[in-house]
Automatic annotation (TrEMBL):
Active site (record annotation): E257
Superkingdom of the organism of origin: Bacteria
Family of this protein: Belongs to the peptidase M32 family.
Name recorded for this polypeptide: Metal-dependent carboxypeptidase
Cofactor note: Binds 1 zinc ion per subunit.
Gene Ontology biological-process entries: proteolysis
Length: 491
């Protein structure tokens, strides 16, 4: 076998072990007994030790040095690029540090859940400080004298820097703030009323998942505090959550996670358990979940179909007709929770986190001052005070598990989704007629053919540009939001 064949065979086993580690994380969020947290931390640390040793094995470096990249076909060259990126990054991080991060973040996740339930930030702060210290140590090793936060971003959005994101978000924030103010100056449409049976919510949630193309023979839907998608290839799982007074929380969490899951399920089968067999970045991943959830799932056409499904499932729920239902689904209102935020305000929640975590990584903000900094920034951005930690600094799991650099990819994904939606509308001119019948196949098929099938073949912005036909920028997203909400609110 050639060095390249040896490298791919070795990497396939590493990829498979990575999937096993991911399944441990899925189980921790869905099935694991609470009392197993300490043991699970040791299990995760052991898996990370094995994975880190494989990713940094000197044999990988020898194979990489022996391969003539210029002689490879495009797909093989992309595989080599991804393996080399992983090897170079992993080699900069000591194995004992990687294991300790896995151990501490597994434990911190449980501490976060307990603190969130008790609304006690002080109980979580010590372990968060430990996580941040370890992640800053890792970031310094990766940055090699450069910017720590930029080094962390490479894990989630290769090729993007904090300065790039700051410039993009700087263009978003004033326009979103102005649109938000204009909307909130108008009377709010009515929302749904009553209580919605959990079993009926989950039944309709499953129908929605299948409507958007989720293959349940290679996936499953469970409940979790924080909805997520996990896995790739032939085993891609999602979670959702229910609220007896707000069925949209369940339905749109499901559609969102199905966007992530379908991306993974629709990658070319030839890439299974290879470096190309996963989504290329979290920003591109988020573009799929957001376009499924918002531009498709919250469209006037699709909500017309969903209104009928809701009536069948729940009877009269306080909404008189399809137009009122469309307005209710897209209702802009005050709220604390990022994952429950409307399209107009969602990115403002993300920008708050982006600025705070950059400050945490640079050392400009301490864990002791984080809660106050969060509350001050939230009140400045939204105009009202945070009432309790679970509605503020404790609402998200990300920092407890060390995902610094992840949050900005949510807004980047919205920007990408705006570009893709613009192109999709041009490619499928009768899209609304199809969506009104509950038929998403042309839209999801276009996304599969133009983006999802490629996995990690192309770099993040490259695949968005190939699919949308334009350099990614915030203009299509802002035009979409302005047009949509001006229509709903009569601006």
């Amino acid at each position: 076998m050639s060095a390249f064949d040896d490298l791919l065979a070795y990497d396939q086993t590493t990829q498979a072990l990575g999937q096993v580690a991911g399944r441990l994380g899925w189980d921790q969020e869905t099935m694991m007994p609470r009392g197993a947290a300490a043991q699970r931390g040791e299990e995760m640390a052991a898996m990370e030790s094995v994975l880190h040793a494989r990713r940094t094995d000197p044999k990988v470096g020898d194979w990489l040095a022996a391969i003539d990249a210029g002689a490879l076909a495009a797909v093989d060259a992309a595989k080599l690029r991804e393996i080399k990126r992983s090897y170079d990054r992993a080699s900069k991080v000591p194995g004992d540090l990687a294991a300790q991060i896995a151990r501490v973040t597994s434990n911190a996740q449980g501490k976060w859940a307990e603190a969130r339930e008790a609304d006690d930030y002080a109980a979580f702060a010590p372990v968060l400080a430990e996580v941040i210290a370890l992640k800053r140590e890792e970031g310094a090793a990766l940055a090699n004298g450069g910017d720590i936060y930029d080094a962390m971003l490479e894990d989630y959005e290769p090729g993007t820097t904090g300065a790039d994101l700051e410039a993009m978000f700087g263009a978003l924030r004033p326009a979103l703030t102005e649109l938000r103010a204009a909307i909130l100056d108008k009377p709010a449409p009515a929302g749904v009323a009553g209580r919605f049976d959990e079993a009926a919510q989950l039944k309709l949630s499953t129908l929605l998942a299948e409507t958007f193309g989720y293959d349940l023979t290679h996936g499953r839907i469970d409940k979790a505090v924080h909805p997520f998608s996990s896995g790739s290839g032939s085993d891609v799982r999602i979670t959702t959550r229910t609220n007896p007074e707000d069925p949209f929380n369940c339905f749109y969490s499901t559609i969102h996670e199905v966007g992530h899951a379908c991306y993974e399920q629709n990658i070319d089968d030839a890439y299974l358990l290879s470096p190309l067999g996963r989504g290329v970045s979290m920003g591109v991943h988020e573009s799929q979940s957001r376009i499924y959830e918002n531009q498709l799932g919250r469209s006037r056409a699709f909500t017309r179909w969903l209104y009928g499904q809701m009536r069948d499932a729940f009877g009269d729920f306080g909404i008189a007709d399809e137009q009122a239902f469309y307005a209710a689904v897209n209702r802009v209102s005050n709220g604390y929770i990022r994952t429950e935020a409307d399209e107009v305000q969602y990115n403002l929640h993300v920008l708050l986190r982006f600025d705070l975590e950059r400050a945490l990584m640079s050392g400009d903000l301490t864990v002791g001052d984080l809660e106050a900094a969060w509350n001050d920034r939230f009140e400045a951005d939204f105009g009202y005070a945070v009432d309790k930690p679970s509605n503020g600094v404790l609402q998200d799991v990300h920092w407890s598990v060390g995902l610094f650099g992840y949050f900005p990819t949510y807004s980047l994904g919205n920007v990408y989704a705006g570009c893709l939606h613009e192109a999709l509308r041009g490619a499928v001119p009768d899209l609304d007629a199809q969506l009104a019948q509950g038929d998403t196949s042309s839209a999801t098929g276009w996304l599969q053919d133009n983006l999802q099938v490629h996995g990690s073949l192309y770099e993040p912005r490259e695949v968005i540009e190939k699919a949308s036909g334009r350099v990614p920028g915030p203009e299509p997203l802002l035009a979409y939001l302005t047009g949509k909400f001006s229509g709903i609110y009569g601006l």
